[in-house]
Every structure is written in structure tokens, then in C-alpha cells.
Amino acid sequence: MSIRKILIANRGEIAVRVARTCREMGIKTVAVYSDADRAAVHVRACDEAVRIGPSASRESYLVIENVIAAARKTGADAIHPGYGFLSENARFAQACTDAGINFIGPLPEAMVEMGEKTRARRKAIEAGVPVVPGMKEPIKEGGEAEAKKFALGIGYPIMLKAAAGGGGKGMRLVIDPKDFDASLATAQREAVGAFNDARVYIEKAITRPRHIEIQIFADKHGNCIWLGERECSVQRRHQKVIEETPSAIITPELRAQMGEVAVKAALAVDYVGAGTCEFLVDGNTKSFYFLEMNTRLQVEHPVTELCTGADLVRWQIDIADGARLPWTQADVLRNLRGHAIEARIYAEDPAKNFLPSPGVISELRLADGPGVRNDCGVESGSEVPRYYDPMIGKLACWADTREHAIARLRRALGETVVKGITTNTEYLKRVLELEEFARGDYDTSLLARGQERLLAEDTKDLDIAIAAAAIWQLEQDQRAAPKLQDADDSAWAKAGRLAQMRKGFSR
Amino acid sequence: MRYHAIVGGEEQLVEVTPLGTTYRVVIHAGPKEGPNPRVLEVDAVHLAGAALSLVVNGRSARCDIDRGKDGALSVLVNARVQKLELLDERKLRLRQATGKFSLEGPQRIDAPMPGKVVRVLVKAGDEVTEGQALVVVEAMKMENELKSPKAGKVLELLAVEGAAVEAGAKLVVIG
Q1: Among A193, A231, A271, A413, which is 20 to 30 Å from A507 by CA?
Q2: Chain B: residue nearest A388 by CA?
Q3: Phi, psi of A374, rounded to the nearest 5 degrees
Q4: CATH number of B107-174
């Protein structure tokens, strides 16, 4: 049976991105939206749209029954889950299957094996894949004391991680044993909020690690290949900020080694579709440890697309439809070229401790020119709701070398203008300017170590800014003034102008 | 026209004079006219939206202007955001009268954005130190700690654990 209509069970930039490929493939699309998202870009990017509940994601995008009902109502024969929300929820994948809807992703069984991090670790150990020491099961209710003992056993620092998680939510580094209880409570609360699952487990924290992941793809005929790595070590509080491929420290031999391990892990659970094996790599020894497998399309998939030339969403859809992998491993090696780097644009204020900055985007201008790709979920006039993740889009650049790709992304970030809300674009540009980053000599602590340089005040061009503000203000004041003194007009015209001015002032 | 630009807590006097199609902008280092002001001859053209194209001594710059909810201006020049406030004489006097410049007197801690109070870490009457966490507000799936701007005592405590709050809602008053 071939896929003719896909319901996209997501919002924002990823929903728009999936819809684009569907259009290119001649597949009809169905958007789902919460009350806060009625006017969102992704609703218009699709052919049909169904309301699935109130603004809170727990009452809309996370409600399996509502999403399935929307698919039934519109006759969608497949569901693309995007990332986040229900994308790694095996119950959702099962519900799709039960409803006779093609879930674009792995089988529920593989998701259970890999989606839950502790099980994935056990599977990896069975397959002979090196892992970081940690708990094989999540912390049980009432098992806090035992967990604390375990943490002391493997030695601090430790990492608390949501069993159902990903994306840095519900994840806490604990350096001092006395912070264990507070960190556990926070991790559990965030885990409930993000995944509706409070279970958390413990892992030993590797100091100065690099976070490098391997993209894999498997079809329903037992074929599985890797598509190179992505280095995601530029993180703030375990939230990825900038990703690149290839990694500055991975040699062709190490890439093949890690790729083979990732493929082995995937084959061990009869994996199907797009998946990502995350590894911690010791920057000095280059030893690598399997962390987890993400059973979905990743936020940062565009860098892989830029360096391979493949459309990963098209592959996902074709494979869900029963097609064989279009490439062999040798094809991948032949097609990999150049360097790609992506920056995540967040509605947040770096100067205010990265406080989210929801609100209406009064004007949006995106970068353009050679080698630039925008994946954006908003436009001028869009409201960034406070209910969801503050990422509004991704800016990715490709060039022949790492140096050129970085320069290109810096240039493109400079062209990006978001007005009305505060974003991290300037911060991102400064990250690219960090000397350690330019050298490729960095680990997951880069942003914490560079904090002062990244947030330092920069008064270059301050005089130009002051001049611009003063000229702008002068013209506003002059435009406002004569209207008050106008005496010849009718009373109606005056009342009208006055009302307009009041509007202007209250803004 | 004279304006007072406040940048990083420092006040600078700015004089703007239209000269036909261009402007002369004189920026003094302090709040009063000083001996060596910076003088800019500026050719300015309005672009769509709140934006200007400036040519200053042959240098070309696009300036995007954005007024925040608090009235402060963000001016984007060459991919750098400069934050400043621009006050005329009347607004400056008003500002000085309300004493917003200093941390003297009771300080209100407001919800910076809509969200939910997940934890209240102090009680009314508690002595607090500068930088001490007072309330944790969750918004957009992240928890944000609101800290005390000064050492003092919790005079009022309006934050309630579990309560939804709007942006600008008064949570704590420190005196």
C-alpha cells in the first residue's frame, strides 16, 4: 500500500520541514494544531488542518487519542511524528499500527528497546558496544537511598537522566553528593513536563567529553547503513546549540568504526527507518562510549542532508512504504562531501540568563545567498507561544571546508533579523568566534567556559546605534507633534487622529 | 533636539540637528555638555519597518530598531545588538523622580514572562542576600530562578506554588 496522505503530528519548523518533502513527493498533508497554534506557519504549510486541543502540549500534541482521531477523520494513511512530543513514544507507534495507520519510524518493539535509555544500554552491552558506567534500570519509587549509594559507588560527578528523555530535558549534572536530592527532584519534574514520565536513571559523568552521534538508516529488508557523524558538543545545559559534520576530531577509520558499532546496535533490535546513535567521545584518547539511540529524526538532521545530498525525510517515507535503502555504504562514502554547520535560533535572552522570550515577531528577515539553508517555523507577525520549546528555527550552512562553513554561518547569522522578541543570534555568532571552536578543540563545556567572552558587552558601533536611535526618535516626535496643533480639521478627523495617537502611545 | 541616552546605566547627552537631508549628531560622554563630544555627520534613509540606512563618514550601516516592552530600544547594527534607552528632558525628570535608577527602597520582583510558579524558596519576613534565589518560575519547559537584586528582607510575598502567573505579576517585594 502506498502512502498518499501523511498527518504530521508536530508543530513549528519540523512540521514545516516534513510538509515540504511531502509536497515534493506529491503526498497530501494534514497539520494538527493546538489553540495557541491556530495561526502558526505549519498549519498553512499543510493541505488540511485539525484542531487537537487546548494550548498546553499535555492536552494537545501529547494526546495520542486526539492525534489518532485526527488521522482517522482526514483519512491519513501515515503519521510522521517529527521529533519531541510523541516521536519516541512506543504506545503511540502501537496505537498507529492498531488503527491501521503507517507510523513513519521504527516498530514499537524497537522503540521500547532503544527509546528507554536503560534498556538501550543493556542491548548495547549485549551487542558488545562500549558504554559509560551507569544504572541498568531507572530509579524505583522509594529507591532514592539505594540510588544515592549507587552514585557514590561509581563516583561523582554523575549525570541524572530522564529514562524516556532526550533533548537535554530532565537531565542534571550532580557534582556534589549533597545536591543529589534537589537535582533528582528537578530532573523528575522536568521529565514529567517534557515526556509525561518521571523515571530517571544515573550515569557516571565523563569529564571533558565530546558528544558525537552517528546517523543510521535501516529498511524493512534487513539493510542498514550509517550516514556519517554529527558533532553536537556545543551545548548549554545539555541543550544542543550548534552542530556540525564532519567532526574536527574524527578520522575516516574512527568514523567507520563508530558507524559499524551504530549499525550493529540498530540491527540488534531490528531497527527500521532513521535513527541516531549518540556517543561520548573522549577528546584525548578518542575512546567512544554508546550513550543512547534516538529513534526519530533529529533536530540537526539538515547538516547530514547538506553533506550527503540526501533528503532524509524522503528516505523515511519511502522506507515506511516498504522501499529498500536507496544507497549502499559505498554510495555514502562516495557522496559525503564538504562541511556543514547548523545553529539553533531560540527565542531567549542570553543577557537575562537565557530566559525564554515568547511574544509576537514584528519582523523576520532570514539569511540568504550561497550555501544557506533556513528551517524556520515562524514568519513576520508570528507569535511564539509560551507553551512550547523556544526554538523558532535553524540556520545551516554548507561549504567546501570547515573554515569556510564557519565563516559562511557567521555571515548568515549577521543577515538574520528577528524583531519584537529577543533571540540568541548574536550569541550564536560569538560562539563561532570563540578561538577554541575555530580550532576544533572543544568539548561539551565550551559554552560554560566561554561564558564571559560570549556575554561580554561589545560597544563597537555604539555611537552609530545611538545616532540611529536619536534620528529615529526625532522623526517620531516630529511626526506626532504637528497633528496636535492642527486646528482646521473637522472634529471627526481630530477625534480619529487622537484615537490613533493613543494607540500609538500605548504600544 | 536633546535626548539622554542611557547605556549600561551610564547617561550620555545626545543632540540631533537636521541639516536638510542629513543630520548632525553630537554625543557627550556624560549627562552634561562636555569638552570633547563625538560629532557624527549622518546621512539617514528610512527603510520599511523600524529601520534606517545610515552612511556615516563613508561607512554604511543598516540599523534595525526595536522597542521592547519596557520601553528600552534595541538597535541592531552589523549583527550586534546595542541596548539603550532614549529619554527626552520630560521623561528624564519623570524617571529621576521615581528613582528607578537605583536599588534604594523596596524592590519588586515581577514574573518576567507568563508561566507557573513551581517553587517559593523564601517566607515573608526572611532576611535575604543579594543574588539569593527567591522563586522558581517554569515557562517554555525550562525552570528559571528569580534572584534577589539586593540584600534585605522579604516585605511582601505574593508568589504561590503551583499558581499560573502573567508577565509582570508581582511575586516578591524585597526591602
Answers
A1: A413
A2: B140
A3: -110, 130
A4: 2.40.50.100
